[in-house]
Every structure is written in C-alpha cells, then in structure tokens.
Amino acid sequence: KNSNGASGTNPVGGGQDGVGDSMPFIKTAENAYEVGKRQIGKNMVFSSGEWFFDLVTRGWYDDATFWKKMNEASNLANKYQNFKKGKTAEVAFIMDEMAMSLLGDRAVAQQLLAANRQTIYRSGLAYNFYLIDDLINGKLPDAKLYVIMTPWRLSDSDVSKLKPILQKSGKTTLWRYGAGDTGVSNFSALTGMTIVETKSKIDNKIKINSNGAVVNGAGANPYYTVKAGQSGVQTLGVYPNASNQIAYAKVSKNGWNSIFYGSTNLDPQVLSYAANIAGCNQFLNTGETGYADQNLYVLHTNKAGTKNIKFPSGTKDVYEYYTNKWYSGNSISFNAGQYKTYYFFYGNKAELQAAGIGK
C-alpha cells in the first residue's frame, strides 16, 4: 500500500511473472523509495540517466511520496554533477564484445555476464566498465586493477599494444578463463605465465589454497591451466576434479602483477584478493551493494547494524546526506538500517558545502 492509500496489485500468472510484480524484495512503499534512491545514487557515480517505467501498467509509481523523494535526490544529483570531475575508477572491468561471439555455451555466458554482477556490485570497490578497444588504443586513463572479462579474441597487434599498458609498474591485471582464439602463446605473453590449453570439458570448480573453499564453475571446453614449476609463479588454487592442475595463480614482475583465474565465476574472494594486491580502496567488505567515484560512495544495505566504512587515504571529511551528519577522517563507523540507501560524500568540507552539499 502506498502513501496515497492505494493497494496496487500483485498478480500471479498472465505471462507477467518476472517482469516486476514478482520482485519479492520490494514489499513496501518504503522499500521502493530506497531502491529509487539507490538508482539515482548510481546515476551520480556513473554520470548516467534514469527514467521510471511502469512496465506492465500496474500503478507501481502512483505514490506522491515516491516522487517527492525522487525529486529531492535528483536535485542533489544535479548539484553533484556540477561538482564532480572525471576520473577513472580504481577497478576497470574490460569487455571485448567481439569475443562473446565465440561462446557456444549459454551457461558460461550467463555466469560470465549476469551472475557476476552481484559479485561486482557488492565488492565495496570503485569500479567502472569499458570496452577493450578503448584500452588497446590508449583511450582509458590509468586504473589500478584491470579485470579482463573476455580475453579470447586478441590479434598479434592487440597483444603488442596491451603489453606496455598492462605490464607497467603499479598495474595489476586479472585474466578470466583462458585464451580462446587469442592463442596460448599470446595469452602466455600477456599473463607472464606459461598457460596450457586442454581440449576437454571440466566443471571448472576451483579450490582456493588459502582457505580450502571450492568455487563452482559453469564448465567449459577447452579448459586452461598454468604450467607447474615456473619461477616466480605463486599457485593460488587448483582444479580438484582435474588432478589438482593449477587453475589460479599470480606472478609479479618489475612492479606489475598478473593473476590468472581459470573460471567464468568471479568469486568475491578472488576479486578482493586482486584489488588488495593492486592497492585499491575497499569501502566495505560486507557484501552489500555499493557504487563509488572520487567523491561519493553510495551504500544500499541488506542488513542493519554498524558499518565500518573505509574511504581513500587522505580523506578529510565525510558527509552522509540522509542523516545530515559530518565525519572526520577516512575511516568511520556508521549505524545503518536494513534495506536503506545512504549517500556518503567525501573530500573537503568547505568545497562540498560551496557546491550545496552538506549543511
């Protein structure tokens, strides 16, 4: 029931299940307000747009309070867009759209693209998404960590251009799954490790050496391993169903790091490990949805309680908009409600206030 007293509908069947009315996590009007605030916060971070669309004409937004809250958030977003300056996120997820044409397995595509979103969105990192052509052609400012989602269709020329970009001091790259049509020779040159291709299908389960956890995979043919016994290569995980061949490994050379991970299932601990190696700031590690840029961290909680949030080194002031509270320093403890959205603006208090953000 919304603030206007209308009950709305929640039909079952009729061909509309899964398009919106059957979203069990939005149970109240208040839940809808918080999701709307989350989406506008996401727009602030990514400088994107938003429109609200009642897909199946159920009266989803027949609520004066909803529009009041969205208007308030939109006005704040306009102020922030005039304040923020463009900057590459610390973590860059790189996609090669052409490489996706090589996939013949729907389960692999589903895991790589759709299922990985939860890991990325709940990582607590500042991230963005780019195309590999822009990385190859030098159009992206430097990130700390590059996650190459589909490195499967790179030409000799592409490899030659990527090596000086990624194999540079201070850079860390996480390579996903394997070589594909890039070829194992070129892939080995990019990763800094000798990679072996085996034309057979396994389920791509990976056992993580540090804690013994097993990460499930979608299964793929061929599968890729790191050749054992290489100098300087650290084994991080193995395929337990393929004679414990090396499935996950790291090498460091001349100040740059390269991590090979032979699964399409991006486990949170794998991404956190790579981000830590790269020196990226992790705002929160509790598995809750977040978006961040150089002056804003948007948090949408799934649990109530105290959140210990870490902002980038050198942060002087933090302002949470909805509680109207200022904090000092780059580490704060914040008491949050469940299913709530919060906007943490950080930087210099005087500059934020001059932009109309913070009282």
Walk me through the topology.
Blueprint: H1 29-46, H2 64-83, E1 91-95, H3 106-121, E2 127-131, H4 132-136, E3 145-148, H5 156-166, E4 172-176, H6 184-191, E5 195-198, E6 206-208, E7 214-215, E8 223-226, E9 233-239, E10 245-253, E11 256-261, H7 268-278, E12 289-292, E13 296-300, E14 305-310, E15 317-320, E16 325-328, E17 331-336, E18 341-347, H8 349-354
Parallel strand pairs: 1-2, 1-3, 3-4, 4-11
Antiparallel strand pairs: 5-8, 6-7, 6-9, 9-10, 10-11, 12-13, 13-18, 14-17, 15-16, 15-18
Overview of the structural elements:
With 359 residues, the chain is an alpha+beta fold. Helices cover 26% and strands 25% of the residues. The chain has eight helices and 18 strands. The protein has helices at residues 29-46, 64-83, 106-121, 132-136, 156-166, 184-191, 268-278, 349-354, and strands at 91-95, 127-131, 145-148, 172-176, 195-198, 206-208, 214-215, 223-226, 233-239, 245-253, 256-261, 289-292, 296-300, 305-310, 317-320, 325-328, 331-336, 341-347. The strands form four sheets. A nine-stranded mixed β-sheet has the order 2-1-3-4-11-10-9-6-7. Strands 12-13-18-15-16 form a five-stranded antiparallel β-sheet. Helix 5 (156-166) runs parallel beside helix 6 (184-191).
Major beta-sheet overview: 9 strands, mixed
How many beta-strand elements? 18
Q: Rough shape?
A: globular
- What fraction of residues sit in β-strands? 25-35%
Structural class: alpha+beta
Low-confidence stretches: 1-20
Mean pLDDT: 90
User: Secondary-structure element order, as H and E?
Assistant: HHEHEHEHEHEEEEEEEHEEEEEEEH
What portion of residues is helical?
25-40%
Oligomeric composition of the shown chains: single chain
**Looking across the biggest beta sheet, what order are the strands in?**
2-1-3-4-11-10-9-6-7
Q: Radius of gyration from the CA trace?
A: 22 Å
Distance between the termini: 34 Å
Helix run count = 8
